[in-house]
Amino acid sequence: MFRKGSIIQGFLIVAFLVQSPLVKAGKLEKAFEALNVYNYFEAKALFEKALKSEITGASYGLSLIYSNNKNPFFQLDSSRKYILQAESGIPGESEKDLLFLNTLGVNETSILKQKNHVAELAFLAAKDTMKLESLNHFIAHYNFSVRHPQAIELRDSLAFHHASLEDDFESYFGFMSEYPNSSFYSRAKDLYEIRLYQQKTKGASLSEYESFIRSYGDNPYVSQAMDSIYSLFITEISVENYYAFIKNYPGNKNVSQAWRTLYKLYNREDSKERIVEFQIDFPDYPFTDEVMVDYELSGMRYLPFKEGDFWGFINDKGMQMISPVYDWVENFQEGLAMVGKDFKVGFINKAGRLVIPLVYHEAEMFHNGFAIVSKNDKYGLINKANLVEIPLVYDEMNEFSQGLSSVKRGDKYSYIDLKGRSVIETPYDFAGDFEHGFAYVELDGKRGIIDLKGRTVVPIEYDWLENFTDGLARVRIDEKFGLYNNMGTLILPVEYDHIG
User: Fold this and answer.
1) What's the CA gap between 472 and 453, in Å, rounded?
2) pLDDT at 2 over 60
């Protein structure tokens, strides 16, 4: 038998079990009803009360409230929190509860739609601020958004822009460290490397370049630093300077070039005797095979020959030594021959190697290890290593005689030495070559004679004259002749119809 109290107690339990879902449902229904009439305060309070017992529906409702900027509760991160909570609650709902939630408009589709909507609003808000903090926040908390890759690209672009405004190696390094997977990483790395090089070597000193190479051996501008060291160290073109460079910087990429230049400077005469002396003086020269070839060929006579339309060289036994590939050739002098092809001039050695490239428009033969060359109607001087001894800046340049060359710039002549230094600066209308310490010059239609110091020996006042021969020079004004000695003394007055 059941006691009356037990029956009543059992009834209450059954009644509670039957009515409890209805009570919960009632809270959600009222909350959504309040939301539908824009009663955000009541709706929010009801959804919050229902959270413990009806997490999916209540979370969805709260997400709707927090994503609506027409109410005072607008807060996108809270909306995100509750929509993710609603999404995670769906798998735990019974079929009956899912049917009920669906009547309220809560289902997987509506949750996904709200989730995407919240993410879109968050992206647009972050984009509008154009601040790294906002974009980084979106990237960290909305990785489910279809806008996530776009946000990363936008963030990286903004960060790269900030780094480029600073435009120093520290700013680019900071970007690379912060965003190693960025599409801007390679551009930042390129700029980092060049700015690092520029900032660390801004003084352009040997010590800075040396320090840069030691500290940043993997930097692509190490090669440029080595070139700068090479250029700075060789302050004067000489065998001694190149050898000192080789010994001081054995790891420099220009050492091979320095060795070959040293060899060409040493062996200006291209003689077997000089080559033997070189091997004695520089037993550590690395290209001994090339030296032996030069030794074998140095005493051999080469003769130009033509085959079809092209020129090459044979030896005095008729053996072809250099194939006929040039438009024209000159005889060998000082171990090199001038050759031409396609209106360009260069020089080859007896092994047929083009040691002075075909880049010049005109050239003179080598003399004492130097040759006058021109490009674009400008003349200068090179050595056998194709190093420019005197820049190609002159409109005319004559062969050196007694260490001086008369050069023309514009419409005036002057004299320079083998270092390109201006020795006689007086601007003449014409300047001849020096012979026995004297040269004739012309100014305003009159001629005179100067010495190696630029001092006037014969006044520049004659219609015609000749340079000194056996210490004497004839001069003429109109049809009358006179005679000077090389001391500058007029020993015969200008009154003779003929002298000599």
Assistant:
1) 19
2) no
Helix, strand, coil share (%) of the chain residues, nearest 5: 45, 25, 30
Strands 472-477, 480-485: parallel, antiparallel or unpaired by DSSP? antiparallel
Query: Cβ–Cβ contacts within 10 Å for residue 50, how many?
Result: 22
Q: Provide CB contacts within 8 A for 493, sequence distance 6+.
A: 482
User: Chain-wide mean pLDDT for the chain?
Assistant: 93
Q: What string of DSSP letters covers 32-58?
A: HHHHHTT-HHHHHHHHHHHTTT-HHHH
3-state secondary structure of 157: helix
Given a cut of 60, whether residue 143 has pLDDT beyond it is yes
Residue-wise pLDDT tens digits, 73-117: 999 999 999 999 999 999 999 999 999 999 999 999 999 999 999
Q: Name the residue among 380, 374, 379 with its Cα closest to residue 360.
A: 374
Question: Three-state DSSP class for 430?
Answer: strand
Report the alpha-carbon angle 272-278-283, nearest 5. 130
State yes or no: pLDDT of 11 exceeds 80: no
Tell me the mean pLDDT in the region 278-301.
93
Closest Cα partner for 118 from 76, 155, 89? 76
Which residue is associated with the tokens 């072809």? 320
How is residue 469 annotated by DSSP?
A: B
Quote the CA–CA distance of 447 and 442 in Å, as a whole number.
4
Q: Helices 132-141 and 108-129 meet at what angle, rounded to 10? A: 160
Rounded CA separation 84/111 (Å): 9
Q: Which of 14-18, 88-92, 98-102, 338-342 has the lowest mean pLDDT?
A: 14-18
The tokens 């054995």 sit on which residue?
250
Per-residue exposure over 54-68, b if at least 16 CB sit within 10 Å of its own CB, e if not: bbbbbbbbbbbbbbe
| Domain locations along the chain | 27-126, 146-201, 404-496
CA 345 to chain centre: 30
> What pTM was computed for the model?
0.70
d(CA 61, CA 70): 15
